[in-house]
Amino acid sequence: MRHAITVALLMVHGVPTSSQAQEVEDLRTRFDSAVAALDSARIEQAVGILRSLVGQFGPTTPVDLRSNAHLRLGEAYWSLGSPDSAAAHFSAAVKADPFARPDPDLFHPELMNTFRTANRTTVTLGVRAVTDTTIEPLDERWPLTLAVGLPSDVELRLGAPEALQGDSLVAIVRVDSMAQYAVSLLVGDSVPLTPGTYAIRGIIAGTGGTDTVQVVFTLEKQSVDTAAHEPPPALTLFRLETEKGAPPVTSLLRGLFFGAAAATIPLLLFNKDVGDDAAQPHALVVGATITVGGLIGLSLGRPYVPISENIVFNRQLTEDWERRNAAIARDNALKVRLAPLRIRVQLQR
Prior knowledge:
Elements: E1 4-5, H1 18-39, H2 43-54, H3 63-79, H4 83-96, H5 109-119, E2 124-129, E3 132-135, E4 142-148, E5 152-159, E6 168-175, E7 178-183, E8 186-187, E9 191-192, E10 196-204, E11 213-221, E12 242-244, H6 249-268, H7 279-300, E13 304-306, H8 308-337, E14 341-347
Parallel strand pairs: 1-2
Antiparallel strand pairs: 2-4, 3-14, 4-7, 5-6, 5-10, 8-9, 10-11, 11-14, 12-13
Helix pairs in contact: 1-2, 1-3, 2-3, 3-4, 4-5, 6-7
């Protein structure tokens, strides 16, 4: 039995040219005329139209048109008493679209049984996914719908497009007819996949992977609001870390000594016989000036000493600011890492 592996997605194969669009429109018009013939019990006429129609189908013919044409042709053959021909076209319908199912309200129960039998003996696999969606990768999964004909175990593998080697097994899903499976887009338990292009491959177990469904999709990380970092503490919040200390005692005594000597020595050496009485006050002024200058020099030249409690305060102020900004940076990094992922599906085989 030939394996028919089909990708069924909610998207179209690009934009058709005007000639292709007109061709499809003509095919749909002929299909509608065949349905009208069936509904009015003109079975042979419907068979003739539908057989001609399916003979013109090509790879660019829309999946729904191919599948529906085979379904209605199977219905017509069943009405003419040809269950084998009906089953063959039902099988062709689900090969074209594994999700194809007749409306049980419109089909005869025995006809539905013929379809179910044909469907359950046809090896076919389809995957349906929303083609453009956004999820929270830590809390949500990407939902897929799987459809088979023959009940099968379906392997789902994740890897790079067109690179069949090195992909990783995501799950093995038992599918009797249709099944839902939600794919995690996390590496491990908490790290989302990095943005890029990936492929989910569906493989019917036991086929050796010769035929696969390949759903190619891109991941785009969405923007998130992050917190701004705090500015540095204002300079006015910092305390002075040094102050002028007391002058050394020896320097102070030395300054006083030289100042006193500058005033005293002229007095001791003053000779009234050769000197002028007016010179004595000048000597005192000189001595006093030297003394005051020495004291001012000692005051201005006092060494700076650290204020330990202010140094500790300033260091703590800076460390607290750095700690808060580090926490903001960690929170921002986590928000970016867990940002919503936009999933855009492309259709490739």
